[in-house]
Amino acid sequence: xxxxxxRTSVSDFIxxxxxxxxxxxxxxxxxxxxxxxETARFMNDLEDLIENRTANHFLGIIIYxxxxxxxxxxxxxxxxxxxRLTTTFIFLLALKRVAEERKDKFTAGMIDDYFLYNRHxxxxxxxxxxxxxxxxxxxxxxxYGSDRDLNxxxxxxxxxxxxxxxxxxxxxxxxxxxxxxxxxxxxRLDILEFPLSETDNAQQIxxxxxxxxxxxxxxxxxxxxxxxNHTDEVQERLYEMYWQPLEEYYPESRRLEEFFRxxxxxxxYELLNRRDVYEGFKSYWNSRPEDTETKLREINRYCRYYxxxxxxxxxxxxxxxxxxxxxxxxxxxxxxxLMEMMHLFDEKKINEKTMVAEIRLIDSYLMRRALCGNxxxxxxxxxxxLLRTVLNSYGKxxxxxxxxxxxxxxxxxxxxxxxxxxxxxxxxxxxxxLNAYSLMCIRxxxxxxxxYGASAAVDTSDLNIEHIMPQNPNKWWVxxxxxxxxxxxxxxxxxxxxxxxxxxxxxxxxxxEDFSFKKSILSKTLHIRMNTEILKKKKWTKEDILKRCDxxxxxIIRIYPYNGANAIHEKEHLNIEQDRSILSLNAxxxxxxxxxxxxxxxxxLPGSIxxxxxxxxxxxxxxxxxxxxxxxxxHSLENGRVQFNQAYRFExxxxxxxxxxxxxxxxxNAWKQEGSAEESENAAVSETPAETKPEEKAPAKxxxxxxxxxxxxxxxxxxxxxxxxxxxxxxxxxxxKKTEKRVFRSKNKKPAQTEGND
Length: 758
Known about the structure:
The chain is an alpha+beta fold. It contains 35 helices and 16 strands. The chain has a 6-stranded mixed β-sheet. Strands 15-11-10-9-16 form a 5-stranded antiparallel β-sheet. A 3-stranded antiparallel β-sheet has the order 12-14-13, with no helix packed on it. Strand 3 and strand 4 form a beta hairpin. The chain is globular, with a radius of gyration of 32 Å. The two termini are about 35 Å apart.
């Protein structure tokens, strides 16, 4: 039971516990106070106390677990307050150093005898403070030696940076105040002291303290949960062998939290919201029968896979080449799927060729959808589902090719649905209509085009995107662009055919100048290959832009191939045993997929589409709909439809069908096993959701005009018809831009800002 807290000063707290050692357990966060922030406030408070001798200042709480080691020695494990206590000891150490510089042996001796050392303890217990393992060496070197003994890396540690800041502050203060007066300020710096006994549940208390707004991430809480209930010796060994490598991969706790989120998605096939990661981890951890070391060893392996995928460098040369291209998308959405593929590759269950193909398939899928402005709100939670489906089929018959299984599930089953990969014809259409400059993926796409087929690596870090026909036209461009008004000009200016790469310096020089001047600037950087054909042009009009749109699109099609082109045939000759747990429901207002769970429940998958509920529809179902909508399960589409952002479980098939179809009665038979002949027939005759119709019909109209170069020329009227209303295309662009922010993570933003589902 938690004892009554005692208000005391920092000075008295340290002196009255003489003979004991303060231990910062390894499960605690590393020392993170910033010299310019928290430590500066700490020193300002002390200086105020020196100026005003009647004042007191409250520093905070310190909760510790009192453990008896021997008759003459105790350990006080700090459960909360390690940052302020560590800073206090750094302050005492810095004050002692200044006292030694001033030849003040009395003050230096006071600090040694009453604060820094246990004079009669064993060597291990002689220091009053035993910091966390990660800062232990630096603190010990400062106590036993001097800052001259530290190497460059040690001087970059938080302990040394704060020590250096504090000692400089004390030197300034000592010009106005006696060193004993500076030490005396600790007698009026108050804390609340919470002692715990070994019968108290330190883990529960730790969680309670940090559930009320303390800035701990899920990774901090996970470390505490995994390590806390072990002896100090075991904690240190587990930390050094298993947890410290994780922190070396990701020193920032938020990045480590992101890894744990995706690791759980690999293991549970469900992507949790960030706020639920810690509770989800505890449930998963406790469900595993293995010992702590086995489970931590597995976590280490998956962290290595995650790091290889997004940070590099992967040891396998061919896999690393594919990952270099994939990293340009900067998308963490497929992380669970790729992590498990890396695990299968590591276990030699798939070969190098398959691993490379899996990466390039996912890369093509993401980039094609991004270039076409497809909604990505359901993708983050779709990839864990894809992983489960592929692994289920793979587990039933290991003779099946896992790449073909991925293609069938990712491409064939999604064809014509909201999660489909755009076809070559859809790309050709969209690249003539979309504001490419607004797409966040456009720079990596242009970089890939520039690098494609190059004999040597191309450095694009110093290149900018340039509008050949400038966004803000001068009189020359208004006259010579071939456009009839401002809206049409803006439409053509932002097509991909009008975009290129150039040196950053040249970008500012070209400005809005005419075409011949721009060519003279571009000609000085002939190493940029994509500008070669532009330099051959005598003029630059909307017709030239459309022609270049087609040329760049054909390169995009080669760089990001539609890997599922033969997926239907693969399905036939592989004779894939269908996973009978995968179901589909296709009706005039519904396009849904679900998994039949072993418990009998039905899990409707992300990406499923249904009609939203009106005010007078099925009272019980509408109440469920409103509840799910409030909890963020849906993303609104056009024509009154909504899309599932995340999976939801229903009691049975009939309840799920009633909810999706807005009707009572027996509807269990509306569900069909996915991939069956009956399911395919129903999908063919069902009404296509409105949002997919233009995507499917537009390419069909344009096919005859694209078979040969000659036919392209004769098909100009058809192309003009497509582009006769540029204002309409421009009006669609804000929606595209909004969508793309959900697909690709900006290099200048944190992972937490990349997805819209949390």
